[in-house]
Amino acid sequence: MQSERSEYPVSFVRTLLRLQQSTKAGVLGLGVASLLLLPTVGLQNKGVGRLSAAVAGLACSLVGYRMAQDNNALSAISEDLGIIDRKQSIAWYNGLLSRKQTLTVENIKPIEADLITDVVGYWQAEDKHLLIVGGTGAGKSTFVQAFASVLGYSWHYKIYDNDCTVDDWLYLRSLPSCSLFESYISIGEQMQADLNAIEDLTQQRKQAGNRWQPNLCLTVAEEMPALVDEIEVTREWMSKQAKRGRRVKRFIAVVAQNDTVKNLGLEGDSSLRDSCFVRVYLGQSAIDRAKLLKNTALVDWLERGGKQVCLVDDKPALRPTLARTHTQPTSQFNKSSETETAEILTESQCSDVQSVQQMLENSPLTGVYVTPEQVNALRELYQSGMSVANILEGKLGQKRGGSWQKKKDWLELLLCS
Asked: Within a domain: residue 269?
């Protein structure tokens, strides 16, 4: 603190202004004194007294005149000195702020120290629900499907998506243990069924104790704000799933464009969002979140990483990629024998081929059909660093337009399969 005070620039302007005011007051005082001495000189008899009064009056006039000149000179240079003083002050403050900013950046931990390379494993260790936040085109559905491919076939999947098209959720829909609900009426009915299931499973768990074996289930709620607005039971569904669903291994993956409690149906109970969900931020939402944390190194890392990276619970993370072969979950959820595992792997490999074929048959591309052989060639280009957009334009002859984002999502999912 002492060093900062000593470095503060000396303000000459304040001293100058005080001196200017003093000389101005002195000029006024001497002028008044000179005027008062004039009648005194006239009243004095000739001699030393009159001479002394005259000399005193003349001296006051001369000193007042000189002080008036000094005052004018001080006024003339005060503006220039004021500009110099302000520049010195600004430079000092900028230097002080720059030092503080440097200290802040130096104290930030390297990205690698906090990097989450296995998002699925992190989520399983946390034993929480999943909240996926990202704008349009951020790759939310791609993230969910890649996430599910790592979880594997031992899980049951449900998708609540009122705006789903035939081109959406292609990988999840190819799984035999996945159910899709595409209308608000059917979604509302399923949400009520979920609430009833939680009650039943809770009783079964109490009665079975350590012998209880859960059926692992992940329910994906797409565009949660719309479900909150259109389906009355959604708020109760969100609250009870968050509070009690984890104990009976019924997890939810909520997808939204922002994480406000109002849009999530948790208005008035923000603690559920903060304590019961692993929060994943994608695309620009991740960058905005890092800016909110005032972590410039993290912002730069996210901007350079693009769709390969994300933010998980405010930590840098690598996005999961669509697994080619499905493995069993970690021991926390593993209930299968070695024979069952082998059967699942064999079934998975066949399903991957079938999934790619289905995707090719439902291609959104214009004027071109992609063969399985071409997929392998395009995948090599993608893995070597060529972007999805460049592949669409340069190799497949697609033009940017209304369905451009759908084509990008479809091709990215295909190349990652």
From this structure: yes
Domains of the chain: total: 3
pLDDT at position 414 is 82
State yes or no: pLDDT of 344 exceeds 70: no
Instruction: Answer yes or no: do 144 and 168 share one domain.
Output: yes
Which pLDDT tens digit goes with each residue over 354-384? 567 777 777 888 877 777 777 887 887 787 7
What digits encode the pLDDT tens for the residues 69-98? 777 776 666 656 666 666 666 666 666 555
Q: Is residue 399 part of a domain?
A: yes
Region 288-315: mean pLDDT is 90
98 and 118 assigned to the same domain? no
Residue 128's φ and ψ, nearest 5 degrees, are: -125, 175
Residue 69 domain-assigned? yes
Q: Look up the domain containing 24 and give its range.
A: 2-107
Which residue shows structure tokens 């005193």?
56
- pLDDT number for residue 32: 72
Measured in Å, how far apart are the chain's first and last C-alpha atoms? 60
